[in-house]
Amino acid sequence: MVGMSELHLTKIAYGCDSFDDLRARLQSRIDRGENLLLSTRYKPKRADELVGGSLYWISQHRFGLRQPLLGFEDIEGGRCAIVLAPVLIEVEPRPRRAHQGWRYLTTADAPRDIDPGADAEGRIPAGLHAELATLGLI
């Protein structure tokens, strides 16, 4: 289930070859229950609308994970920190083009969460899904 906001952000998991890499990068902070701060150059103009939404991570030209977006903080150097909850929620692995920085995403266009209790047997493995998406078959 998507947060209370109707507006979200998308971000490329830069330097991560897969969502497993992203999980590994963030896991120690998640295990400690710490909010994660993601530094960005500019605060989004629609920041107030984004609180309660999520940041959707993109890797290999597809969505895969999201994190609830808790707010924004000003940090040194005139930059802004996006404050994210210490949880990673798996979402439908839908195709998404790469971009720089972050982009807005509406709830209507956001991929649905994958139920952690759902039967994984019927799902296409992530690597195969990425390959099929690259070929334009899904």
What does this structure look like?
This protein is α+β, with helices and mostly antiparallel strands. 19% of the residues lie in helices and 32% in strands. The protein contains three helices and seven strands. The protein has helices spanning 19-31, 47-50, 126-134, and strands spanning 7-12, 36-40, 54-59, 62-75, 79-84, 89-90, 102-106. The relative contact order is 0.24. The model has no long low-confidence stretch (mean pLDDT 87).
Which tags fit this structure?
138 residues, alpha+beta, 3 helices, 19% helix, 32% strand, globular
Spans of at least 5 consecutive residues with low confidence: none
**What is the count of DSSP helices, taking H or I runs of 4+ residues?**
3
Q: What proportion of the residues form beta strands (DSSP E)?
A: 25-35%
Q: Specify the overall morphology.
A: globular
Main sheet?
7 strands, mixed
By secondary-structure content and strand pairing, the structural class works out as: alpha+beta
What value does the Rg take, in angstroms? Answer: 15 Å
End-to-end CA span: 23 Å
**Please, what is the average pLDDT?**
87
User: Into which percent range does the helicity of residues fall?
Assistant: 10-25%
Write the H/E string, N to C: EHEHEEEEEH
Q: What is the total tally of β strands?
A: 7
